Amino acid sequence: MTRLVFALLAGLAAMVGPCAAVANEIRLKDLVEFDGVRGNDLVGYGLVVGLNGTGDGLRNSPFTEEIMANILERLGVNVSGEQFRPKNVAAVFVTASLPAFSRVGGQIDVTVSAIGDAKSLLGGTLIMTPLNAADGQIYAVAQGTVIAGGATAEGEGATVTEGVPTSGVIPSGARVEREVDFDFTSLTSLRLGLRNPDFTTALLIEQVINARFGRGVAEALDSGTVRFDLSATRVGSPARAIAEVENLRVEPQRKARVVVDQRSGTIVMGDEVRISRVAVSQGNLTLRVQEDPLVVQPNPFANGQTVVVPRTNVGINEEDGTGLAEVPAGTTLAEVIEGLNALGVSPRNMIDILKSIKAAGALHAEFIVR
Known about the structure:
disordered N terminus, alpha+beta, 37% strand, 6-stranded antiparallel beta barrel
């Protein structure tokens, strides 16, 4: 299966041919972030009620009792000096992201996560919870039925859990109560931040914007920033200018990179990866240690004891290598895959080979191991 996947990748790389330039052109909206056009993280501390005996144990989570008492007192119920021991409530953190240009009355999704010893939030209801931003102001209020992402089954002798029942979501569970103070229409210039900083890509973005609006409208400041002069576009509002800019296309440049995941044996390489002239040989060394203890019994009517005599068989077997393969200089991604497949190696052995090639100084790419 692995060889088939690699063969398909190699075939695709060979089939792209003259259409590669067009296929690799990406819209600017997928390459950059516009300065000021961003979301804001929100967080709140609330209470989920209505759980079927799977809530916090209040002796172990005193903060749950405290917030429940505060809520009841705000509702006019005096609970001073009372002792609570219900199992149908759980203290939770509520998180959300306030999108850019959200307006009062809009609704956003929220995530609810238990912070005590609750076993499950399934079927619970989040009580009205204010959501604060980093400036301490309340921007939204969340409330609604929690949709938990798992389930728990429990018996007298065993417990089984599927997924994560202590975390859930509430779609459109928060209503925006305050807008972010940002006057977008008054902007005269805007910075475009590249998600993957690169000097060549920044220069290409500058050139394509200037080709559309005129010379001097855009300027690459560094590898991750391009300044866009909105006042020089002469297209009206900033929103109209950005709508035209974000649909312009460029072919981004990136560093040659090899990413390896040792746990799953996954190898991902870009088509810019090059390998200098190098020879590769791959073989297997097997060390076998087997214990075969021997039990020795005394003779009949003899005054003796049963003795276990250790017996160990040790052997080393070195299988024949798959041969010595020579990789010529300037090898491309497709040729690397074809060469590794010719050796008949597994993905995990490929990782070891790539590490050795990198250590030898023949792999000209950034090597990332996860």
